Amino acid sequence: MIKTRHQIIKVSLALMVLALTSSAKAQKEYAVKAAYLCNFLKYTKFNDSNKKFTIAVIGQNPFGGHLKALNGKKIKGRTLKVIFLETKIANLPKNCHIIFISAKEALNQKEIIKRFATPNTLTIGDNKWFIRAGGHLNLVTRNNSIRFEVNHKSIIKQKLKISSKILRLAVNRELN
Amino acid sequence: MNKRKSIKKRLIIIITALVSLAVFMTAALSLNNTHRSERKRFIEKIHLLARILGENATAAIEFNNSDDANAVLNTLHEMHSVDKAAFYIDNKLFASYLKNDSMSKFAENHLFPQEETIYLQDNIQVTLQLGIASEQEVNIIIIGNLTELHQAFNENIKVTLIITLLVIALSFLIAIWVQHRVTDPISLLSKLAIDISENKDYTQRAQLIENDEIGDLTKSFNEMLYEISKRDLEVVHERNLAE
Q: B153: part of which helix (H) or strand (E)?
């Protein structure tokens, strides 16, 4: 009986350590992804005279406090504004420069992407269906590093001006 | 007794020496200036290259993609004058390029000054700080090979030396020609004077070659001969009358 209890405690502890480790890993991953969102702003040319760059996170915020911490940061002379939105498509603002669609919104992402199909909005996600749904950049993990896939077709279609320096870094270089 | 020195020889020596000195000085100055400007241009080229590479690798650095930064540096394969190059982020090696695998690798950690140009024996090391990301200190280090520059300099020396020797030979020929033009009338005059002094024949006349200072001298000499011969004739005539 005591032996069984010990085993349960050991398993519980192991599970706790595992959960903490994976949570820390996920936090680190999203810290990098948050920095990537800012970098994407640097390498995309937006045709608007807005003094702010707006990054909108749609759905559950996977970034923890990492993206919020970047609020107010100066990028190319503009102030960064980070907003977190619900998924009610009708309520979504139109003047966002980057829309990050949470993986939990994978089912709605096609509709959200359609709404933001303008030359001034970059849609970014991190799920394997994102590119197929028409999103522009999909963050993926390759060899323990965060990389991204590019949807060349939709970028060309929407006349988004993304620097070739970024496109060169994509894990998929050919037109899909 | 002073050793007799010919004007001919002196003229040739003076003209050739002056021309040689001038040509040597000009050639040395020109070579020095060329080498300096070539070296300056090479350093400027390395600096420009560093900035272009930095610019091309900005996204790779910001997205922490060392493979792409390596690919950017590998474009240096086409530049034979670059031996090594590397990007360091916060003094840690991020990407590097070596022209040959046999070359010594870059250290993993390196503390850099902001900007530096170091001359090594056959190499030049240029370090620049790239203003890419405000959060990170990005340095590029390029080691250029000066061998091509030195080879070009040696070639320049050879060509300049050949040209200098040709110019000196030409100046020697010109000196001989000038000497003939200047000293021939004087020599003729001198020979005639010696001949007259030995034979006492004052009826001879010097040939007028050029209408210049020597020509004036020849005219005066001929007038003097005329006066002497006239006086001789008068003396002979007076003597005949007396007899």
A: helix B147-199
